[in-house]
Amino acid sequence: MCPRHKKVGVVGLLTTSRYEYVKAFEQPDILLPNTWIVVRIDGRGFHKLSDHYVFKKPNDLRALDLMNAAAVEVMKDLPDLCIAYGVSDEFSFVFHPSCQLFERRNAKLVTTIVSTFTAHYIHQWGTYFPSTPLQPPYLPSFDGRAVIYPTTRILRDYMSWRQVDCHINNLYNTTFWTMVLQGGMSNTDAEQELKGTVSSDKNEILFKRFGINYNNELEIYKKGSVLYRQYELQTPNSAQTPTEEDTSVPESTQSRSQQDKLRKLRRKAQVVVDHVDIIKDEFWERRPWILSNKPGKLPA
Ligand code: ATP
Ligand code: ATP
Ligand code: MG
Ligand code: MG
Questions:
Q1: One GO molecular function term (predicted)?
Q2: Would you say 121 and 46 are in contact if contact means Cβ atoms under 8 Å apart?
């Protein structure tokens, strides 16, 4: 029988209507099980928005602190997140392979993160930009997507990719804006001169022409921001780096009460904002709970 002509009836308390067949048009979008889920959000049109609110070039610290403050609230709201990394107008939020939130439905995960982040970003705007209130049409909004990564190695390469990108862009932007703002060059002249240069050339321009040692720039500019739950740090060698097998135990095999217990423990931990290297092993070895998803000892 055509679902459209399904009988309208009451089964217990469950009411069905002749219109319910439309539900079947909804497409399933469940993300592959036992894979890392990264939801990356990015500010829409932030180039224009940053001009309108007169962000300092190349780095406005208030804007970065606001991004981090919104991301901390997302991490607090969703204890299933194990780490997040932010640079410029983007943030990557990482769910563990064992995550079962929203049955791993793509749209639910992405839209929840995007809207929670945007809500907090707008809510806290005034704290970071007290003298420039938000004005339509320059209202901050973000897009988002979920990408799955099958192994811990690839997840770490993804994180490294974002941090390397941060470094490359920041070195370029720092040199470019120094040439323009301190060197009085036009945007086009600075761009022309930087075309085809490598890192050492840019370091040299900064140092020889402007006396700026790039190494002395703020860590938040050079390394971006990494957010995670804080437990007692482990010494790199004694700590066990989780194996691929450790990270792939499906949470669906854990009981509900076990899942709830873990979630409660995660909520107790403080979410911290760090500006450190996440490419080398040390960061992950000292914080094994990020990849294992087993809460550590709360710091005394
Ligand atoms: P899209 O909508 O395609 O993302 P976009 O204008 O947001 O376009 P992005 O490539 O995301 O472009 O770049 C973000 C831009 O926002 C940067 O190039 C920079 O101009 C500006 N921006 C973001 N954060 C800051 C900041 N903290 N300080 C100064 N400028 C910033
Ligand atoms: P989820 O997070 O899975 O979306 P939900 O609690 O938001 O869960 P929905 O299936 O989206 O559940 O249903 C929305 C519910 O919100 C409705 O069942 C109704 O109880 C309530 N609701 C939504 N809009 C209104 C409204 N205008 N007036 C009264 N109640 C509303
Ligand atoms: Mg953007
Ligand atoms: Mg961007």
A1: tRNA guanylyltransferase activity
A2: no
